[in-house]
Design goal:
The chain is α/β, with parallel strands linked by helices. It has helices spanning 6-13, 55-60, 73-84, 97-109, 125-136, 154-159, 180-188, 209-216, 219-225, 239-245, 296-310, 315-324, 351-368, 386-399, 412-423, 435-445, and strands at 4-5, 16-20, 24-25, 28-29, 40-41, 65-69, 90-94, 115-120, 142-144, 168-172, 192-195, 229-233, 249-254, 261-268, 273-280, 283-293, 333-337, 340-344, 372-376, 404-408, 429-432, 451-455. It folds into three domains: 4-94, MurE/MurF, N-terminal domain (Udp-n-acetylmuramoylalanyl-d-glutamate--2,6- Diaminopimelate Ligase, Chain: A, domain 1, 3-Layer(aba) Sandwich), CATH 3.40.1390.10; 112-324, Mur-like, catalytic domain (UDP-N-acetylmuramoyl-L-alanine:D-glutamate ligase, 3-Layer(aba) Sandwich), CATH 3.40.1190.10; 333-468, Alpha-Beta Complex (Protein-Tyrosine Phosphatase, Chain A), CATH 3.90.190.20. Helix 8 (209-216) crosses helix 10 and helix 14 (386-399) packs across helix 15 (412-423).
Length: 469
C-alpha cells in the first residue's frame, strides 16, 4: 500500500474529522490482534464482536489513528484517551466502519489504473482466479485475492495491496445477497469479468437459481461503464439469463465451435486431468494439458485463457501457465497415502460442484479399475430446497455407479436414504450422525487401492477425516 493523505480518506469515505495530528496513513488494519505500529485501525463489528473494544489497546501499541462509529460507547472511552495522548493520532467518525472500509478501498483503487478483472460464479471462482493469476504474473506485476478473500472485508484488503506499479488486479467476487456483486465490482473498478457457472449455491438467500443468475450479472454494470468485456460459459444452463441481464459486451466460451473461445479434441489421463485444444472460433490457438483433475476445470481454464488472449497475452505463456497451475488446498486436491487415493474436495459443496466431483471420482476409479467411495457431508445454505437437492445427490451417486457411500450429517441422511432405498440393498452404504463415529469406522470400510472422494460444505470441515483413512 502506498501512503495516502488523511484528507483524501475523509473525501473518499465522507467521514468527519475529530482529531487530526497525523497527515498520512501508511497501512490499514481491521484486526487489533495483528496490528502494527503506525497502522490506522478500522474496527469492524459483527454479530458477536465489536472491534471498538480494542481501540484503547491499539493506541498503546502505537497506531497512527482510528475511525469509530458515532456514539459507540467503547470508542468514546478510547477517544478520551486519544485526546489526552501525546501521540500524533488522527481520529475520524463515521456511520458504519464496514462501509468506511469499502469506500476507502474504492477511493484508493481509483488512484491507479491497473487492468482490473473480476471473477464470480457459483463454482470454480478460486481455480479460475488461480489460472488467470498464473498467466498474468508472467506479464507484469499482478495483485490478486488470497485464498478466498472474496467479500466486503477480503476484497478491500486485496485492493490495498496495489500501488502505482501494479499492472493487473484480479478479484474473486463472492455473493450472499442481491447487490453484493454490484458493490464489490464497483470497489474494484472491474473492466473485464468472468462468470464461471451458475447454480444453487447460497440458495438460502435467494428465491431461485434464476435470481442468483441475475445477481451474478451485476458484475456487467461496472464492466459496461469501463467499456470492457464479460466472459461467459456458453454451456451454462443459465447462460440465457446472464446474457439477457448483461450490460456490457460479452464473449461466449465453451464446447461449441461457434463460441468465440472454445475447446475441442478432449482427452483425459488416468487421474482425470484433461487435455484439449483452445480455439478462437475455428482457429486453434494452442493445446493445453491440465494438472488439476475434473472435466469442469476445462471450462475454468478456457475462461482464463480467453480473457488472457483478449488482453494480448502470448499463447505460449497461456499454455505454460495454465499447465503449471496446481490444485488449491481442498479443491480437487489429490492425496496418495497408505496405498489409498483421496480426492480432497472439502473446501465447499453445492449441487453443481458435487456432481462434477462425483464424475471425476467415477472416471478415475474406472480408469484404475478400483472401487469408488464417496464420503459426503451436508450441503449447506440451500434453504427450503435442501431436502430436494440432497435427494437428487443420492440418486446421482447411485446412477453414477459409485460403489460405496459414506454419509455424514443430518442433511446428508436424505441422500443416504434415497441411495439405500433405490439401490434396494444396504450393502456398501453407511451413515454416521457425527464425525467421531465415522472416524472410528472409516478404516474398516476403506481398503488399499480404493479411490475416495471427500466432499461437503465448509461448515462440515470434512478434511478432518483424511488423516484417519
Amino acid at each position: 500500500m502506498e501512503k495516502i493523505s488523511i484528507n483524501d480518506l475523509i473525501v473518499w469515505t465522507g467521514s468527519l474529522p475529530v482529531l487530526l495530528k497525523s497527515g498520512t496513513i501508511n497501512n490499514f488494519s481491521t484486526d487489533s490482534r495483528t496490528i502494527k505500529k503506525n497502522d490506522f485501525l478500522i474496527p469492524l463489528k459483527g454479530a458477536n464482536f465489536d472491534g471498538h473494544r480494542f481501540i484503547a489497546d491499539s493506541i498503546d501499541r502505537g497506531i497512527s489513528g482510528f475511525v469509530f462509529e458515532k456514539n459507540n460507547e467503547y470508542a468514546l472511552d478510547a477517544l478520551k484517551k486519544a485526546k489526552e495522548s501525546r501521540m500524533k493520532l488522527s481520529v475520524l467518525e463515521c456511520g458504519d466502519t464496514l462501509s468506511f472500509l469499502m469506500n476507502a478501498a474504492k477511493g484508493y483503487m481509483q488512484r491507479y489504473s491497473p487492468v482490473s478483472i473480476g471473477i464470480t460464479g457459483s463454482v470454480g471462482k478460486t481455480t479460475t482466479k488461480n489460472f488467470v493469476a498464473g498467466i498474468l504474473k508472467n506479464c507484469g506485476k499482478t495483485v490478486y485475492s488470497e485464498k478466498s478473500f472474496n467479500n466486503e472485508i477480503g476484497i478491500p484488503k486485496t485492493v490495498f495491496g496495489t500501488d502505482s506499479t501494479t499492472q493487473y488486479f484480479i478479484a474473486e467476487i463472492g455473493m450472499r445477497a442481491r447487490g453484493q456483486v454490484r458493490e464489490l465490482s464497483s470497489i474494484c473498478n472491474i473492466k473485464y469479468g468472468i462468470i464461471t457457472k451458475t447454480g444453487p449455491s447460497h440458495l438460502e438467500f435467494f428465491e431461485n437459481v434464476e435470481e442468483i443468475a441475475k445477481s451474478k450479472s451485476e458484475i456487467s454494470e461496472t464492466i459496461g461503464k469501463n467499456n470492457g468485456m464479460l466472459f461467459l460459459n456458453g454451456d451454462d444452463e443459465y447462460f440465457h439469463i446472464l446474457k439477457k441481464y448483461s450490460e456490457c459486451q460479452i464473449a461466449e466460451c465453451g464446447g461449441k465451435k461457434e463460441y468465440k473461445y472454445n475447446f475441442s479434441n478432449i482427452s483425459a489421463d488416468e487421474n482425470a486431468c484433461y487435455g484439449f485444444d483452445f480455439n478462437f472460433f475455428s482457429k486453434k490457438i494452442t493445446d493445453i494439458k491440465l494438472s488439476i483433475p475434473g472435466f469442469h476445470n476445462v471450462y475454468n481454464a478456457v475462461l482464463a485463457a480467453a480473457i488472457s488472449f483478449e488482453l494480448g497475452v502470448d499463447q505460449k505463456i497461456i499454455k505454460e501457465s495454465i499447465e503449471e497451475t496446481s490444485a488449491a488446498d481442498c479443491r480437487m486436491e489429490i492425496i496418495r497415502e497408505n496405498g489409498k487415493y483421496v480426492i480432497n474436495d472439502c473446501y465447499n459443496a453445492n449441487p453443481v460442484s458435487f456432481k462434477s466431483a462425483i464424475d471425476t471420482l467415477k472416471i478415475i476409479a474406472e480408469t484404475k479399475k478400483a472401487r469408488s467411495i464417496a464420503v459426503i457431508g451436508d450441503m449447506l445454505e440451500l434453504g427450503r430446497e435442501s431436502e430436494k437437492y440432497h435427494e437428487d445427490l443420492g440418486r446421482y451417486l447411485l446412477r453414477s455407479g459409485i460403489n460405496i457411500l459414506i454419509a455424514l450429517g443430518d442433511k446428508s441422511k436424505r441422500a443416504y436414504d434415497i441411495y439405500n432405498e433405490e439401490k434396494n440393498s444396504s450393502a456398501g452404504c453407511y451413515y454416521f450422525k457425527d464425525k467421531n463415529s465415522l472416524i472410528k469406522s472409516v478404516k474398516d470400510i476403506i481398503e488399499k487401492g480404493d479411490i475416495v472422494l471427500i466432499k461437503g460444505s465448509r461448515g462440515n470441515l470434512m478434511e478432518d477425516i483424511i488423516k484417519y483413512i
